[in-house]
Every structure is written in C-alpha cells, then in structure tokens.
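ok so for the tutorial part 2 we go from a plain amino acid sequence to predicted structure tokens. step 1 is just haveing the sequence, like this:
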Amino acid sequence: MRMKEVRAIVRPSRLPRLREALRAIPNFPGVTVWAADGFTAPAAVGKRTVREELTEFSHKTLVCVLCEEGMVETIRQAVFDACSTGTVGDGLVWVVDVGEIHRIRDRVEVGPVV
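step 2 — the prediction. this is what the tokens look like for a chain of 114 residues:
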C-alpha cells in the first residue's frame, strides 16, 4: 500500500464546504488544518487592489490528508469542487510521497508503506 499526503492551500471561507466534502468520502482517514498567510505571484495577479497594497499577506488555510494512493484522486476532486471560485487566489493542491508513518502512542508503523 503506497501512502500519499495530499496538501492544499485554500481560502479559509471554503473550509466548511471542504470539510463536508471530505467527510462524505467513504473511509476518509482524517485531515489536519493550519492557518497560513501568503500571497500570489505578482505576475499572476496583474494590477493590485488597494486592499492588497495595504496588506502584505492574505489569510489562507493549509489542509493535509494522509491517505492510501487509491484515494488521492477522490480527495483532489473534493478539494477542487469545494474550493474553486474561479478567481485568482483559489489556492493549490499537490501530492507528496510518504516514506513512513508511525503512530506516536505505541511507536508502531502504520501499515506497510511500499
């Protein structure tokens, strides 16, 4: 079983929709969420608004899901469907290979990570 980490940077306002979409996935393993700040590459934005001129960063949410490889596409689609507004700043989704996972409670490796 190959393990992956699906990460996404999304608008905080979209988090409730995303939470519901992820909970609807059968056997969903769980999610970790962080508050984050960032900005979009200036070339992607074009002309900046007054609000952007007055603030250095905009608030974002970083979402992390550890899952089996077979769940990646379902989770990615849930992120796209729940978080897309069709405008600059919707965020990013990427997938990272996971080498090992150990449960802290008993130090046991969680499943074979191939």
